[in-house]
Amino acid sequence: MSSQDEQFPAAAAAAAAPEAAAAPAEEGMTWWYRWLCRIAGVIGGVSCAFAGLWNCVTINPLNIAAGVWMMLNAFVLFLCEAPFCCQFIEFANAVSARADRLRAWQKAAFYCGMAVFPVVLSLTLTTLFGNAIAFATGVLYGLSALGKKGDAIAYARIQQQKQVDEEKLTGTLEGQA
User: Which residue windows are transmembrane per the record (predicted)?
Assistant: First the structure.
């Protein structure tokens, strides 16, 4: 145990069990959907990087600002979704672990907000198509935040109970009139 672990025992316990800290955020997602979101994030980062670089080749300052923002979006997507792409950056694993602890709706809002800003800044086809996959990654995380769809039997029971309640309510109202 190092002197730093003695000073901060909670940090040492969290470093010893990173799976336990990340488990609550992933409890509603299946493994294949989690991988789909990660792959969409990486592809979104690639599209943001190329479109951002292409967007910077202009003299319009708003296009340059949107292009720089898109490249920043690509860096953040790589950092959060694929930290192995940023292995020479010291804080990459820490940022990825923190991003994994976020809830799905928080990731959805963050990714969609990141993708919308350059489009609002400079509405061109390059910014629109370059940020589309990054925005789709946010949508995928947002859909996972909604949860699983219920089964047909449970839905039919709920509908039948509503119908019985309405009949009771209608019967009591007719009896009072």
Answer: 32-57, 69-96, 108-141
